Here is the input.
Amino acid sequence: MKYITMSYPSLLNIILLIGLCTLSCNSNRDPYTSQIKPPAIGKIYQINVLSDEETLASPVLDSVDFNYGQAYPILPQPEPYFELRQYSVEDLDAQPILRELKCFLLLADFSQDNNMTRMVEKDFRGRLDKTQSGVKIGKDKWAKDQLIVYIYAPNREALINEIERSYTTISKEVEKFYQSMIRSTVFVQGNNRAITDSIQQIFGIDMAIPADYTTALVTDSVMWLRQEIPDISRSILIFKRPYKDPKDFSREGVKALRNRVGEYISSSLPNTYMRINDTDLPLYINQLEIDGKYAVQARGIWEIVNDFMGGSFVSYAILDDVKQEIIFVDGFVYSPEKTKKLSMLYLDYILRQVKLSKDSPQ
Here is the structure.
């Protein structure tokens, strides 16, 4: 059989021609909108404040610092809840890599005509009412898995008011956004199936534990788990006891519960045990739900009696109304002279994933 060679361009040549035309047409566009977006980068709980230079040098930034720079609750040494960095739009042009940061807080004062306000108008195609204040949430503007929070107002005073008014809502949105990053960091090595199975057998609860945790103590009602990395020791305590009285969930009841569990924790010195220190810093109590069950969260600092050791802790006392039990889960960190916020975020994440058994009482 005889094959005939056609003089028409091959499919490969056609594809190459289309690609060259596309590149030529896009040559004057922003590379971050015309190319495949890179994955976003950055630290957990980092917020990058973006505005014009005049706004960043005004009391507007003081309002951002006052709200978003406040301390993480109950640490031995103060650490900011969010790590703030500030950039102007011109900084992004000078250093395009900055566009790949994970979380941006964009501040637009529409009384000004500058690169910042023009960018926001372009992002919303001119549909924002510039006489009103407001907040808009965007995703993946310059990179994948990126959060963009727009705060805008008709003038500087209104912008300050909107920053203060929206802080609680936006901070929760930022916390929610970073949960997947926290999870991938905490469980980077996977789950410890053996410990998870033991927790299920002893306490009747489902609780995922990272693979690098080990068992330090196990009884029929208490389990102590530890993660040891250079300069940081993180621990998880799990405890259960019969539910007797609503006072068990009072401030004094939760304090007594944790101090009781703390008697199982000692240092290398004799006659040592752990207890809450609510003299130097307050014991913070908050009511909430865990897995749809009534719970009380406690935050504070701990110390070892008869030794010079201490650190931060977070606890959850959860009411299992089916079994009429209190499930108590606690995370504490020991890292002298080191920052503790990230450790507390990691421990808190693990504790809040606990699932109570749905079985009926025996």
Summary: The first helix runs from residue 11 to 25. Residues 1-34 have pLDDT under 50 and may be disordered. The first strand starts at residue 46 and ends at 51. The chain has ten helices and 15 strands.
